[in-house]
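Running log. JK asked me to keep both predictions on one page so they can be read side by side. First protein, sequence followed by its tokens:
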Amino acid sequence: MILNETKTATKNRPENFNLADYFNVFIAFLKLEESNENIKIAFEKFKNANGSCEYCITFENSLNKNPKFDIVRAEYDKKMEECKLISTQKNFDAKEYSLKNNLDYNLIQQIYQIDSDDRKYRDTKDFLTKQKELDSQNQKIINELHKKYKTYIGKSLVGEKFESVMWAVIQHSNIEMMEKYLPVVHIAVKEKELSSTPLKMLIDRYYGLKYGYQVFGSQSSDFGFKMADEKKRKEIKLKYGIE
């Protein structure tokens, strides 16, 4: 269970919690239908953690369409406004980020552009035309990067800020690309290059598109994916080693 995994990883000490830990606890509380008070406390912890804006923006579509988030909808909407304002006002300095984190400047520039293009028209009326073109372009670039580095482009290569960019491109791709990279994302999670939440979302999207069911309930009702039966859920969770 994710709460037990988090407890073990952090040695049950709050000072050891990172952004992914706060997010995972918040998601777990929602699924377990904890009290509204506890869910709001968990969200508050996540919201105030360093880097939470990146998570909010990355998972915006899923969070907006998931009715489980209605408990913290007002607080979440307010946080999103703040995040988008910060994103608009603050120019990202790839050189400074690269030097500070001892990362490759050219790769950071590239991954930043991929990240920007992945979001550019996703929530606009131009989604079916302009965004689809950018998605196709991003998929080609990710394929080239994976061929070059022979690994997931995660925390070690681009830092925590951009660890989910490659996943986002895969998540927004086609079933063939998802099938190709699902094992790569799985390994990335095991090697701590990416948090487990994106993997769960990719599993749900892939299994939903291929088999018509999801395992973790991360995909909105718009997709029409039913929940897998208990036996199948246990089987898939065991396969990927996550709860």
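And the second, directly underneath as requested:
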Amino acid sequence: MALKYHAPRGTSDLVFPESEKVERLVEIACEACALYGYRRVSTPVLESTGLFRRSIGEETDIVTKEMYTFEDSGGESLTLRPEGTAPVVRAYLEAGLRSEGLPQKLYYAGPMFRRERPQAGRFRQFSQVGAEAIGSEDPLLDVEMISLSVAIFDDLGLQRYTLLLNTVGCRACRPAYLEDLTTFLGDVSGRLCDRCRERAKKNPLRVFDCKEERCRETLKNAPVILDAVCSGCGRHFEEVISGLERLGVPFSVDKHLVRGLDYYTRTTFEFKFRDIGAQDTVSAGGRYDYLVEELGGPDTPAVGFSMGVERLVMAMDAQGLDPFGRRRLDVFIAGAPGVDRGRLLELLSRVRSEGVSADTDYMDRGLKAQLKQANRLDARLVVLLGPDEMERGEAVFRDLEESRQWEVPLTEVPARALDFLGGR
């Protein structure tokens, strides 16, 4: 039978056991954020379109080509969020979090949306976990963001990645550099692709995002912003490097590293993983000292990062990691023909109230078929209920792995199940 409906192109369903792997991965990342003193914030998946045009940049690929934007019945232009930083900053301002003291350290997790060309590691709906520290220009916060990413990788058992680091300057030093870069791009225009020639006119830094080999080769001779930064940006970058060295975090300075969002200043960084293909950036971020002001707040420095959940899964798969394992059912309660289903339901509820995962049959199966179902669910313990046993106030515990069974008082089933499971 042909299916009538499918998941939209560039999206996918998460079903068991992959859904549990992703859920646990996000939990681990969020636990690391909390360990570093960050607090959870949740924002709507819908935001005013102007928020992203103002923050990300009018000429970025995200704004010009990739946003899902529509006008609602009231005439308001809304966009499915393509990234998490701007919404978090908007929430920080709207909630008046500045009054609670600075820096405000916030983290988030959830879906993002971009109308990109689907390929391995690039989806139209994807999930991110990210953290933002708003209110401090201390370069050690930049170091903390990077070390937090490393901590998450460590917690997941991930290796074989490279940290790339750069600075993109500030308002004081970037304009002069952009003039030099624009002049260079004009001189080599004939050796650039059409897209880079367009970028050179509107947003010259974006040329460094190009993946075409002829452009990458040409840009090797481009002026480097690291050579043109002001003394303040230079000192900031040196302190970031010093902090990473003190923590023993290996890195490489990539003088052409830029981020695809216009709000970045000073520190930018990316973690690239081997073995996962072209879309190899799993975590990235940097400083955005002017974004709060751009969105209507006071002059407030900030720094943050985000990591792609789907790419984390790809990296784990590529490295043969499955640290979570399949989540097993603790208890399956099987009822023989003629058993009092009401009493079975009460027992099921009592077991679950102890924090034990439990299930039963809802398909009117025979006892043998129920035991097969318990096997499929990988149940650690089967509780057998029959009319005669229940009349005597007893139940039968069966350990499917050890092929043994024993009777227990019916009133003690929840406690005895906990004992069998190791007290959880």
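Observation for JK regarding the second prediction: The domain at 331-420 is CATH 3.40.50.800 (Rossmann fold).
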